[in-house]
TrEMBL record:
Protein name, UniProt field: Branched-chain amino acid transport system substrate-binding protein
Top-level lineage group: Bacteria
InterPro entries, alphabetized: BCAA_transport, Leu-bd, Peripla_BP_I
UniProt-listed PANTHER family: LEUCINE-SPECIFIC-BINDING PROTEIN, PERIPLASMIC BINDING PROTEIN OF ABC TRANSPORTER FOR NATURAL AMINO ACIDS
Keywords: Amino-acid transport, Signal, Transport
One Pfam family of this chain: Peripla_BP_6
Signal peptide: 1-26
Leucine-binding protein domain location: 35-350
Family membership noted in the UniProt record: Belongs to the leucine-binding protein family.
């Protein structure tokens, strides 16, 4: 059979049209409406971090929506339905979550970064109503709330049972394994759990803890606690608190004349106090899971600077709520459903090997691959993620931050690979 040029051009045009329609045809059986909600401290002492968390979540959703529009996936919609202020309180958090779930009917809540709020919300609201929650909380106790399969509570931030051991490792490197370290922690789920992990690891390695002080950060003054913490001739200190309330303890510590910030270490929440509008304590060091471990982190930081209000400070940990939006969406796409349980069944699938790696910058290609039934591995701005069946992210890189003079932002002085 012979074809003239006109016929060939027609055939080529048909082939091109079919290629153009392929993504749409592949998506014919995929249709869902995905609703996100944010729960975080938008007012009060933690407002700067909360506003950044909210902005990062919205930024991720906007990137996905733009991709959906580019690909012409008319059957799929997603939105940030509402953002609720937890006010740093479990009671307010539960009230906000109830609004998101019962009135807004969201499928997933992104937040809170307080473990105590997350625990209250998960047990009282999200789990009883079959909703997902992606938290910034780091308490090891949170994953234990996942008593059924699949996990409905996911932690994109490494849990404190890793961080506590990392702190023991770097403090031993600084002062020696047999050193005396006084420990101060806020008396809540975050503080007590991390303090317990550290002291257990520290004592197992040969160190001692002359004083361990748990305190209520809402107390009017912490002078008594400060005096206790400088007793016992410690070689150094470990503090577990949030930047705004730590100032209340640091002031009386300074007045004792016996406290040296350069001999002090802190948990992840004390890594970047100056960036949050608080004070820096020159020489003070803090560990934080490396949220800048992904190949797309630099692009995310640039995107945040371009798209987010200049008054909202950027923090590396904002990669975690940003990544959460993509994980939820890609799991929903693979499940072909916005049903939270179905999404939960696919979270591991899209965040682990084997699978072709895609970052958020390649979201169009990742969507096409999922629609073709191909296996993908979403590589977050914060790193590879590799979620486990218990809802925890698996990470082993930790940054050591050091506070700088003149209230300048803290800087990373070392990144270590944790080896148990």
């Amino acid at each position: 059979m012979r074809f003239n040029r006109s016929t060939i051009r027609g055939l080529l045009g048909s082939i091109a049209l079919i290629a153009t329609l392929a993504p749409a045809l592949a998506a014919d059986d995929v249709s869902f409406d995905l609703k996100y909600g944010v729960l975080v401290s938008l007012t009060g002492e933690s407002a700067p971090a909360g506003q950044a968390w909210n902005a990062a979540t919205k930024l991720g959703i906007d990137q996905i929506k733009a991709s959906i529009d580019r690909l012409g996936l008319e059957g799929i919609t997603l939105e940030l339905t509402d953002s609720q202020d937890s006010q740093g309180s479990p009671a307010a958090g539960v009230e906000g979550a109830q609004k998101l779930v019962q009135i807004d009917n969201v499928d997933v809540i992104v937040g809170d970064f307080y473990s105590s709020i997350t625990s209250a919300v998960a047990t009282a609201v999200t789990m009883p109503n079959g909703k997902l929650i992606f938290t910034g909380g780091t308490s090891p106790a949170l994953s234990k709330l996942n008593t059924s399969t699949p996990a409905m509570l996911w932690q994109p931030v490494p849990a404190d049972d890793l961080q506590g051991k990392v702190l023991a490792q770097i403090i031993a490197k600084e002062f020696g394994a047999n050193a005396k370290i006084n420990v101060a922690a806020r008396n809540d789920a975050y503080g007590t759990a991390l303090a317990e992990v550290f002291t257990t690891a520290w004592k197992a390695g040969g160190g001692t803890v002359p004083k361990e002080v748990l305190y209520n950060p809402e107390q009017p003054t912490l002078d008594t606690e400060a005096q206790q913490l400088v007793d016992g001739a410690p070689d150094g200190w470990l503090f577990i608190d949030f930047c705004p309330t730590f100032e209340k303890l640091a002031l009386p510590l300074g007045r004792t004349g016996k406290w040296d910030p350069a001999k002090s270490f802190g948990a992840d929440s004390l890594a970047q106090c100056a960036r949050q509008g608080g004070k820096s304590y020159p020489g003070f060091r803090a560990t934080q899971a490396s949220a800048a471990g992904g190949t797309s982190f630099g692009a995310f930081q640039k995107l945040f600077a371009e798209k987010v209000d200049k008054g909202i400070p950027f923090e590396s940990t904002m990669a975690q709520p940003f990544d959460s939006t993509f994980v939820v969406f890609l799991a929903a796409l693979e499940a072909k459903s916005s049903d939270p349980t179905e999404i939960a069944n696919h979270v591991q699938n899209v965040t682990n090997d084997p699978g072709t790696p895609y970052t958020y910058e390649q979201i169009d290609d990742a969507i096409k691959a999922v629609l073709k039934g191909e296996k993908i591995h979403y590589m977050g701005a914060s790193g590879p993620l590799n979620f486990g069946p218990d809802g925890r992210v698996n990470a082993s890189l930790f940054d050591v931050w050091q506070h700088q003079p003149d209230n300048a932002p803290a800087t990373v002085i070392e990144t270590i690979a944790f080896k148990p």
